[in-house]
Structure formats: C-alpha cells, structure tokens
Design brief:
Strands 1, 2, 3, 4, 5, 6 and 7 form a seven-stranded mixed beta sheet that branches. The longest helix is centred in the first third of the chain and has 18 residues. This protein is about 25% helix and about 25% strand. It is built from five helices and seven strands; from the N terminus they run αααββββααβββ. By secondary structure, the protein is an alpha+beta fold.
C-alpha cells in the first residue's frame, strides 16, 4: 500500500520539483478554456483542448525554471533540467486519485508511448537525443499527470507508468494523489479523443455485409 498521508504527498512532489499548485493551476486554466467550446465545435474539441492546454500551461510554468520541451510523437513532455525525469498530462479512467482502486489511461496509446513506458533501447554510440538531452529521450522516466472528469469534478494524480497491456497504460510504479480544492468544472467530458495518438495509423474495423 502506498502512502496516503497528504504531507508525504506534498514532500514527494517537492522532491520531483512539482507542487499541487502547479498542477491545480494548469488544470484550472485548461478547464476555463474548455468552457469556451460550444455545440458548434467539433465533438472532440473539449477533450482535445483540455489535453493540449493542460500540457501547455504546465510548459509555460516550468519553462522559466529551465525545463526542456518536446512534442515528439505527439507526446507533450516537459523535461527536468537535470534530465532525471519528465512529465506529460493524459486523461485516465478508474480510481484516479484513489490509491485503493486501479487506474489506466482513458484512450489507447501507440508504440511511441509503449517505448516510453517500457524505457527500452540501449545505444552504443552518441545519438541525437544524447547530444540534446544527455541520454536517450525514451530513457528519461516520464511521469503522467492523470486527470478524470466525473459529474462536474476533476480528480488527478501524478503517477509513474511502468507497463502497458494492449494499448492502455495500466501499471504504475508510484502514484501520488493530488489535492485540487475549488477546481473549476469545465462543464463537458474532457476525455474524448484527448490526444491525436502516436500510432502509425488508425484502427480500421471492416464489416462484411451479407448478400
């Protein structure tokens, strides 16, 4: 059982150079942006906007402190100045913020996310990533800011993924619940198509018609 003590969670976030205020601010601003979506927008606009803007506001806050930014493979990441870890925001389902319940990514992920989660690959020669970041980008542990909207309430946690089953990230080395008092309701489902996907192409379902 992981530690549920709120003070421990605050201290653990600080060890990673994060805070509840950082994540609360990014999620709150993203929720405000979603409220500008209307029925005349594309059906997936609210979810895509929330995903993109949450990552944007994280980036705008962390950038002045020397964090690096990459959007490779449509995975929006901010990289710690020491290259020790990175962070990205994605929607989730299940018991987000509840360490007694299982949680997994809401939307299917492709091979780029699988490589990131598994942190596979060792290279014998100095690569482009090592020149830029000091190590292979996929080898930098990436924490996920997991968020979920349910009946007007947004819950969130910061978790370190270690395995995907199928196309969903669902195994975590560590989970840190976040305290989000007074977080504004975006007023819409923010989980629908919350990223463009990193797969090589769409999954096509073919149905044979009789006759």
């Amino acid at each position: 059982m992981q530690n549920l003590d709120p003070e421990w969670c605050v201290q653990r976030l600080a060890q990673l150079d994060f805070s509840n205020d950082l994540f609360h601010g990014a999620l709150d601003l993203a929720a405000a942006d979603v409220r500008n979506c209307t029925d005349f927008d594309a059906p997936a606009m609210a979810g895509f906007t929330f995903w993109s803007r949450t990552n944007r506001y994280l980036a705008e806050t962390l950038d002045p402190d020397g964090w690096g930014h990459t959007s490779r493979d449509s995975i929006l990441r901010m990289i710690h100045p020491s290259m020790s870890h990175a962070v990205t925001a994605i929607s989730a389902q299940g018991g987000v913020g509840d360490l007694n319940a299982r949680v997994k990514s809401k939307n299917p992920k492709g091979p780029a996310m699988a490589r990131l989660v598994e942190r596979n690959g060792q290279f014998a020669f100095l690569s482009h990533d090592e020149v830029l970041y000091g190590r292979e980008l996929d080898q930098i542990p990436t924490w996920c800011l997991l968020y979920k909207w349910d009946k007007g309430v947004i819950s969130a946690e910061l978790s370190l993924p270690i395995k995907m089953n199928g196309k969903f990230v669902d195994e975590w080395q560590e989970r840190i619940p976040l305290v989000l008092p007074g977080l504004g309701d975006p007023g819409a489902d923010i989980a629908l198509l919350d990223d463009p996907g990193d797969d090589s192409g769409p999954d096509v379902v073919v149905e044979l018609l009789g006759g």
